[in-house]
Amino acid sequence: MNQLLTRRALVKGACALGALALLPPGLLHAAPIGDPETIDLAVSPTRSTKLLIWKPASPRGVVLFSTGHGSWPERYARLISVLLGEGFVVLAPLHVDSMHYPEREKFTFLSSFTERLADMRATAAHAARAFPVLPVIAAGHSYGTLTSLCLGGALPNFKGRIPAVKAVLGFSSPGKQPGLVPDSAYSSVQVPVMMVTGTADALPPVMGHATPASEHLFPAETAPAGTYALVVEGGDHQLVDDAVRFPRTEAPVKLFVEAYGLGDAGARRKLDTWKPSAGDRWTLRKAQA
Questions:
Q1: Which of 12, 110, 136, 141 could make an S-S bridge to 164, C-beta 3.0–4.6 Å?
Q2: Residue 249 and residue 245: Cα distance in Å, rounded?
Q3: How many whole angstroms separate alpha carbon 201 and alpha carbon 216?
Q4: Which positions make up the signal peptide (predicted)?
C-alpha cells in the first residue's frame, strides 16, 4: 500500500479511534505526581504546542509519552508516577486532538494524526538537547499507543520512526482498524514492545468495525523484535487508571522499562520469568530471527 492510499484510509480509521480512545472525564487524578514543567514546543514554523515535563530527582532515562485521543497528559498520573519512580523523565506534548488544545477544531482526523507524529519528533528533539546522554523509550495509551508504535517503526509510510527510541510500552492499543491498521502495520517495528490490555477491553462498532478485546494484542502478536503482553482479568479501556487493576500491571511495567530502557540484564531475566496475578495472562514472544 503506498503512502497516498494509506493517508486516505486514515480518515476512516482515525474517526474510529477518535470515538473510542477518549477517557471519561473525572478519572486519572489518583496518583500524586506534582506539577510538571511546561514549555512552549515549536513543532513547525507555523505551529507550537505545550510540552509537559515531569522529572525525577535523579533521571536515568526518558519516556516520550503520547496520550489517548482527546485526552491530555495530566490525566495519566498513575502510569507517570510509576515511570518517575523508575527514574524516567516523562515528556508529553499536548496533541492537537486534545480537548485542551485551543484550536482543536482546525484539525481533521487525518491532519491530527500527522501532527501527532510531528509533536513526537519535536519532543524527541527537545529530549535530545535537554537529556543528551539518557536512553529513550516511547509509551502511550490507545491512539497514543499507535503513535508510540510509529516511533518504533510501525506504519513506515508515515515516517514516524525515531532512532533513539529503544522500546515501546503501550496500554490498550487500537485494534485492526480498516485502512489505518492493516495486517502489516507492526511488521516493521524495530524495538521490543510490551502491550497491556484487559479481558473487558472490547469496544462497540465504530465505522462498521467492532474491536474485541483480543485485538488489542495485535501489536504484541505481530511486532518482530520481541514482545510481551499482559491481559488483566476484567480490565477495560480505562485499565491505565483502574485503581483496583492497574497495580497488577506495575511489576512487569517496571521490569520492562528497566530491561529495555535502561539495559538491565537482570531485569530482563526477571521479566522473562515473571508470573501474573491469578486470572491474568502473561505471554512473551522472542525476537524473530
A1: 136
A2: 7
A3: 8
A4: 1-30
DSSP 252-286: HHHHHIIIIIS--HHHHHHHHT--PPTT-EEEEEP
What is the CB neighbour count within 10 angstroms for residue 122? 19
C-alpha to C-alpha distance for 68 and 147, rounded to whole angstroms: 9
Identify the CATH assignment for 3-285 out of 3.40.190.10, 3.40.50.1820, 3.40.50.720, 3.90.220.20.
3.40.50.1820
Each residue's pLDDT tens digit, 206-222: 545 667 888 889 999 99
**Residue 248 exposure: Cα atoms within 13 Å on the Cβ side:** 21
User: Is residue 255 helix, strand or coil?
Assistant: helix
> Helices then strands (H, E): number in the chain?
7, 11
Q: Where are the domains of the chain?
A: 3-285
Residue 155: closest CA among 209, 219, 63: 219
CB 196 within 8 A of CB 204: no
